[in-house]
Specification:
This protein is α+β, with helices and mostly antiparallel strands. About 35% of the residues lie in helices and about 15% in strands. The protein has helices at about 35-50, 120-130, 135-140, 140-155, 155-190; strands at about 60-65, 75-80, 85-90, 95-100, 105-110, 190, 195. Belongs to the eukaryotic ribosomal protein eL14 family.
């Protein structure tokens, strides 16, 4: 009889890269290159998320300010994201009805209110009132600049005339103070009691030396020219 040997390939079981990170580490076995590489990628991604500075994303609950159109300057909340260019907004506390709005015409703020996406106007109103959005936004520098701009647009001719005189008076006071400080720096090389780089104090002026009192020099009188005959 003839014996025939058949070679059967043995399939190795594939192990995941995270298999090396077991609860009981094996001291005699070092982690593989793939596991170390995967751990480095995970740590880098986590550190990147923790250091991420930009937080004003287009998302549900983000409070924004309309930049154009009929409701320019009013605060709204993003209820849902339609696509990359449009969102669904709602402003029940500012009188803005629910509508779709282009993302390019919105100024995103740092505030975000928590409510489910596509929530009703009642839910959005309660969330905005509980968040005290008007009080928080009124104390920001953004609102102060907007109020100053609106006040400047509503000035009369006489108000603009008074503003021009006030500015000229302010510039006169500032220029006089600047000349005074400049003179102090040039003379002493000091400003507010501290030396200024690139300047040197002027040498002190010496008092004029008094002249010694000696014999008075005789002043020769000019001889008279002979009279012409």
């Amino acid at each position: 009889m003839v014996s025939i040997s058949v070679c059967v390939p043995v399939l190795k079981e594939k192990r995941s890269p995270l298999a090396n990170f077991s609860a009981k580490p094996n001291v005699n076995r070092l982690p593989s290159f793939e596991s170390v590489r995967l751990a480095a990628i995970i740590n880098h991604s986590l550190s990147f998320r923790s250091k991420m500075t930009f937080t004003r994303f287009v998302e549900t609950g983000r409070v924004a300010k309309c930049a154009s159109g009929k409701y320019k300057g009013k605060l709204v909340a993003i209820v849902n994201v339609i696509d990359q260019n449009r969102v669904l907004i709602d402003g029940p506390t500012t009188g803005v009805p629910r509508q779709q709005y282009p993302v390019n015409h919105l100024h995103l703020t740092k505030y975000r209110v928590k409510f489910p996406y596509t929530a009703k106007s009642k839910v959005v109103r309660k969330a905005l009132e509980a968040y005290n959005l008007k009080e928080k936004f009124s104390t920001t520098r953004w609102q102060e600049r907007a109020a100053a701009k609106a006040k400047r647009c509503n000035l009369t001719d006489f108000d603009r005339f008074k503003l021009r005189l006030a500015r000229s008076e302010r510039n006169r006071i500032v220029s006089a103070q600047f000349k005074k400080l400049k003179k102090e720096v040039v003379n002493n090389g000091m400003l507010f009691g501290k030396p200024v780089k690139g300047t040197k104090p002027l040498p002190k002026r010496r008092n004029p030396i008094p002249k010694k009192e000696g014999k008075k020099k005789r002043v020769r009188k000019n001889k008279k020219a002979p009279a012409k005959k």
